[in-house]
Amino acid sequence: MSAYLAINSHSENHDGRPASASSNRSMRQRPGRGRKEVGIVGQASWLSSVINLLNTIVGAGVLAMPLALSRMGIFLGVLIILWAGATAGFGLYLQTRSARYLERGSASFFALSQITYPNAAVIFDAAIAIKCFGVGVSYLIIIGDLMPGVVQGFSENAAAVNFLVDRKFWVTAFMLVVIPLSFLRRLDSLKYTSVIALISIGYLVILVVAHFVKGDTMQDRGIIRVIQWESAVATLSSFPVIVFAYTCHQNMFSILNEISNNSHFRTTSVVFASIGIAAFIYILVAITGYLSFGNAVADNIVSMYTPSLSSTIGKAAIVVLVMFSYPLQVHPCRASIDAVLKWRPIKRSESPQSSPSRLASLLPGAKSSPQHRGDGMGETRFAAITTAVIVLSYIVAMTVSSLAKVLAYVGSTGSTSISFILPGLFYYKISSPDSPHHQKLMKEDDDEDGDSGDEDESLLGGGGLKGSLWRRTLLRRLSLALAIYGVVVMVTCLVTNTLFVVAPH
Questions:
Q1: Eight-class DSSP state of 12
Q2: Angstrom distance (rounded) from CA 331 to CA 486
Q3: Alpha carbon distance 379, 389 (integer Å)
Q4: Greater model confidence, 499 or 165
Q5: Helix, strand, or coil here: 128?
Q6: Residue 259, SS3?
Q7: Nearest CA to 361 among 158, 177, 106, 161?
Q8: Cross-strand partners of 179
Q9: Taking a C-beta distance cutoff of 8 angstroms, is the pair 66, 290 a contact?
Q10: How many Cα atoms sit within 13 Å of 457 on the Cβ side?
Q11: Which residues contact 205 (CB under 8 A, 6 or more apart)?
């Protein structure tokens, strides 16, 4: 999805062997094999990748986890949090596998759809752009809603100054902070702001746990459900909150493009670390927050604490969190809009299956012109799209006070698509034994069989696609199952949102 211009090539492998020694091998997605890289790639560290992905995952939605537990019961709620993390993580894992079929540094939903479902590429990217735009606007609305209360929490006389309690003023003020961050090309450039956002999350977690340990909410606590749920309907109403809490797939390809060591082990460990830490945070906040208030808990647990300096700082931490999460939504939104604008319908005779030139332009190791790689976003185009996204999101945030109805449907369709449906369908299609892309990659794997290290031995086949046949078959079946699961989740969430979000209004 990311669009980059610079070309990075290495003349020497990590083990010190010159590139010429491996020039006859495949240019597979592994560092130090002489593979040509497209775009600004190979510079982000493993830690930076985990930080940015984790910041994309964990947002203000963590504060709604105790409410989800109150409706599901502790046992079922924890199981669903773990299940949602596992399915989201598998979607991320499939993205790492699918990226191996593309030129190093050019992985994106658009590039994959061009060699799998080319005429549907515009639909996929449009859905991603709308979803990311909507989430970005919701972040600006949250800032406008919370900041007047934060200011009054720090100073009781703030209400006397009209603009300090005006949501429009605060939306405008914080735009001055997020605009420069939104114009950064590389996701890795946001690692420091992501650290600050994660510190804010850390404070919120400590706040919830501290109140639980202190026990100052017990007098208002309702009953506690451990095994029993409230009802099937109530459980379904909270299910989307947990599922969408792990949505980060829109930035996964950018992370794969930018990480310096993109071996199978490294990229898989990024997924495991990010999803694992997020699941731990969700479970910790869910259990301690629920045990603090029981069934009396609200959808924003911080708002339930007695007004104090610590709770005011907690609200400020939410503002900081969403402020630095806004650029992480602009990044994939911009790339998807760029892909939509570049899209042209493909005739059957020009499909990737039958066109050698198109096939050559997308497969690893092939020489192609920049316009075929989908990575050539010039400075003017980059600035124009970014400006349009920022201006439109600002206008919407200034004129609309709630996007609950719209986001209910955007999340149900966009989030499920990029988290489950697209990763599953893309990998299932591209890894077919009859696929020319798969056959080419398999041949390259066989050519370097004697030179492969043990660093990639890991999940479901370890050292790439040359693993045993049954493992590759299992992975394909699981990818199809994930796509089907995504459709089921989409239908469930659409029905749930229609009944519980839109209908009550």
A1: B
A2: 24
A3: 15
A4: 165
A5: helix
A6: strand
A7: 106
A8: none
A9: yes
A10: 3
A11: 62, 281, 284, 285
The residues near 96 (Cβ < 8 Å, ≥ 6 apart) are 252, 256, 264, 267, 268, 271
Nearest 10 degrees: CA dihedral of 306, 308, 314, 317?
150
C-alpha span between 256 and 55 (Å, rounded): 16
* Amino acid (1-letter code) at residue 145: D
Which residues contact residue 452 at a Cβ distance below 8 angstroms, ignoring those fewer than 6 apart? Answer: 445, 463, 464, 466
Helices (H), 117-190: 121-154, 167-182
DSSP state of 1: -
Residue type, 398: M
Q: Which residue has the higher pLDDT, 181 or 452?
A: 181
Per-residue pLDDT tens for 311-369?
Answer: 899 999 999 999 999 999 999 999 999 988 888 776 655 554 443 334 444 444 444 43
Name the band, by pLDDT with cuts 50, 70 and 90, for residue 228.
Answer: confident
Distance CA 90, CA 452 (A): 25
Q: How far is CA 213 from CA 97, 210, 216, 309, 337, in A?
A: 43, 5, 8, 18, 47
CA 173 – CA 60 distance, rounded (Å): 20
CA distance 32 to 17: 9
State the pLDDT at residue 503. Answer: 55
Q: Which pLDDT band, with edges at 50, 70 and 90, does 392 fall under?
A: very high
DSSP string covering 13-44 = -TTS-BGGGGTTS---SSTTS---EESS-S-B
> In this structure, are residues 249 and 281 in contact, taking their beta carbons and an 8 Å threshold?
no
Distance CA 6, CA 41 (A): 9
Count Cβ atoms below 10 Å from residue 319 Cβ, excluding itself: 22
> What is the pLDDT at residue 372?
39
Can you tell me the mean pLDDT for 400-409? 70
Q: Look at residue 28 in the predicted model and tell me its pLDDT.
A: 41
Q: Higher pLDDT residue, 480 or 224?
A: 480
Query: 167-184 burial, b if ≥16 CB within 10 A, otherwise e?
Result: beebbbebbebbbebbbe
Q: Which helix (H) or strand (E) holds 8?
A: strand 7-8
pLDDT in tens, 9-27: 333 344 444 343 333 333 3
Phi first, then psi, for residue 92 (nearest 5°) are: -65, -40
Question: What would the DSSP string read from start to end of 451-462?
Answer: G--STT--GGGS
- Please list the residues that pair with 37 across neighbouring strands: 8, 104
Helix (H, G, I), strand (E, B) or coil at 352: coil
Whole-angstrom distance, CA of residue 163 vs CA of residue 155: 14
Is the pLDDT score of 185 beyond 50?
yes
pLDDT digits (tens, 9 = 90+) for 272-288: 999 999 999 999 999 99
Global model pTM greater than 0.70: yes
Other residues' Cβ atoms within 10 Å of the Cβ of residue 202: 12
